Amino acid sequence: MNTELQKESDKAAARGKVHWRKSVPLKKRLICFVIMGLSLSFLYYLILERPISVTAGGAHILQIDKPGSYVLFFSGDLKDPFGWQINNGWIRKSLKVNIEPLDESGRVKPVENFKDISQTDLFSIAEFEVFTPGKYLLTIVWEDETKRCQGHMFLEKDVVEKFCYKWAAGIVALIAFLAILGFPIGPDS
User: Fold this and answer.
1) Among 36, 115, 131, 145, which one is least packed by beta carbons within 10 Å?
2) Within 13 Å, how many C-alpha atoms sit on residue 7's CB side?
């Protein structure tokens, strides 16, 4: 019965009717399922790695477990939609942040030209290169108290790299899922 349907499908395709779905061999389907599982596992691992979050103001002791490049973000209620701009943004000019190691072995260096990342209610304030894991003191000072905003600061490691990895893992998982369903993917399809 299956071979009759397959022959009928081949005849229909030969007459100009194109079918997007074709039967996928079990081995190829299992390989695509494993690829999709690995991609989604990697994606969930990246999503579950949460940034370090503190209130926007005061001094905070942070435990940084991994060395690397960390970007400090401000997220909160912005009264001015252009307050985040680098050149004339009043929030970035008024908010001063610094990270200092509490351990003698700790090393941290501020990055002068930090990554300018912004969204609707979120923007980057500073970037720091942390060389050794340990305890660090984050100080957040508003130079002009009249421009103070309610919000949170969070420190996230390798922001741009994570963004690219998330997209790549999602695309690979989607392609594997479409291959499982029988969409023609690749030169032999």
Assistant:
1) 145
2) 4
